[in-house]
Amino acid sequence: MGRGDEGTECAGLVYLVVQKISYMFPKAHAAAYVMMAYRIAYCKINYPLAYYAAYFGIRADAFSYALCVRERNVELSYKTV
Questions:
Q1: What's the Rg (C-alpha) of the chain?
Q2: Cβ(51)–Cβ(43) below 8 Å
Q3: From first to last of its 81 residues, what are the pLDDT tens digits of the chain?
Q4: Are 69 and 76 in contact (CB under 8 A)?
Q5: Residue 54: which region, alpha, beta or left (left: phi > 0; alpha: psi -120 to 50)?
Q6: Within 13 A of 44's CA, how many CA atoms are on the CB side?
Q7: Under a CB-based contact definition with an 8 Å cutoff, are residues 36 and 47 in contact?
């Protein structure tokens, strides 16, 4: 066995590993996505107050209450603490 044989074996091994990784990654990613979607749906249905509090707490900058009620002629009043 010379040095050239080791390089061929190594290249073959690398090729097999890359094939396995490219096959396993999409399945693992899809499984993780489905698990998160299930957890989000479960919380949204069973704990809506906590879900929406977290949802709007994270996205507070993107939510505009004034824009939502602008067409309904609702006067806004803010409490100061």
A1: 27
A2: yes
A3: 445 566 677 777 777 777 776 666 777 788 899 999 999 999 999 999 999 888 888 877 776 767 666 666 656 566 655
A4: yes
A5: alpha
A6: 8
A7: no
- Are the C-beta atoms of 42 and 35 separated by less than 8 Å? no
Q: State the SS3 of the chain.
A: CCHHHHHHHHHHHHHHHHHHHHHHHHHHHHHHHHHHHHHHHHHHHHCHHHHHHHHHHHCHHHCCHHHHHHHHCCCCCCCCC
CB 56 within 8 A of CB 63: yes
